[in-house]
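Cross-posted from the bioinformatics board.
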Amino acid sequence: MDAISSLMLQQGWRKGPWTALEDRLLTEYVQQHGEGSWNSVAKLTGLRRSGKSCRLRWVNYLRPDLKRGKITPDEETVILQLHAMLGNRWSAIARCLPGRTDNEIKNYWRTHFKKARPSRRARAQLLHQYQLQQHRQYLQSLNLLQQQQLQQQQQLMLLQEQEQGQQSPQEEVPDESMMAQVAMMNDPQSKECCCTAVSVPDDCVLPADDEAIWDSLWRLVDGDGSCGEGSSGGEY
DNA sequence: AACACTGTCAACCGCGCATTG
DNA sequence: GCAATGCGCGGTTGACAGTGT
């Protein structure tokens, strides 16, 4: 217990849950004097609570404009977006959500998004799942690309047949986006990026200093909603 | 039924900034 | 310029309810 706390107890400051009577006294005080001057609440009302405690109680519980009840999906979206932009600046986030308090948003975030980081083994398995998913997506896009190329070849052959006998058959102009796709697929580095994942065994273990990598990955995996902590990196 | 575990939320704590004398 | 004071903020704790075993 620190010096201030022991002094408070010596002076008879109350701590812990607020009673209905205390709430009424505080509410009446704010109605008469407005918010602020929290340290004079005790003198003027007889409440044996510190100014800090009074302010907290008013801001987080007694304020008439507070919105009670569950956070709505819309509010959750706003919280996620703002947290991605602002980080743990709960008061700033709360200002964008009328009727919600920083404490409420902070609690909500911790409860719903900041899940405990899984064990190293679990993390390695999640990583493997993610990499497999990436590989699947790569194979799908490769398959699609091959189909598209086949169709183009068929169309080209058809055109050539039709134009047979004419002086100069038109030269095919490849689609730019397809060229880009082909370039990407043919790029050894990009292939490497997707394919190396396959060889990761189920029980693989991450290296000891993977924190930064994991934080980035965690955000990516978070995208499918299956797991994750949102975008608050480096807090563990 | 009893116990352990987990989620939720009100409240407290410590720190830093702004204001005041 | 500086110390004292008030206030706001983010992090943490602890009580309680709900759920699982």
